Amino acid sequence: QVQLAESGGGLVQAGGSLSLSCAASGLTFSNLVMGWFRQAPGKEQEFVGAIARSGVSTYYADSVKGRFTISRDSAKNTVYLQMNSLKPEDTAVYYCAAARVPPGTIQRMGIVGSYDYRGQGTQVTVSS
Question: pLDDT tens digits for 21-30?
Fold first, then answer.
């Protein structure tokens, strides 16, 4: 059974930092492209970033570039999202997602339909 379990969300003041984790089970982690998405109330799901299977290449939405960093640890079957300089507009439920087949293009990397699995999400709230 494939499971993606996010953790690390919470409440933080603007300018602060949070680190999210997503533990994967039921799949060979090193074969997965991992992505992060978020959804704020009343808004559509938004791509945050993704990391290639090798961990060498990462991709970010313009809205988080330079503030967020994605990394992965194959020994722990875990992908991380380090979020710095948080803003109130970063408030959302954050989801990790896994793709068994690399999306193929940077554009497709940002489409939730390119991923096969998604976790339940973790709430991140940034107060002003």
Answer: 999 999 899 9
CA 1 to chain CA centroid, Å, is: 21
For 56, other C-beta atoms within 10 Å of its C-beta total 7
Percent of the chain with pLDDT over 90: 91
CA distance 76 to 96: 15
| pLDDT exceeds 90 at position 104 | no
Enter the tokens of residue 47.
Answer: 């791509």
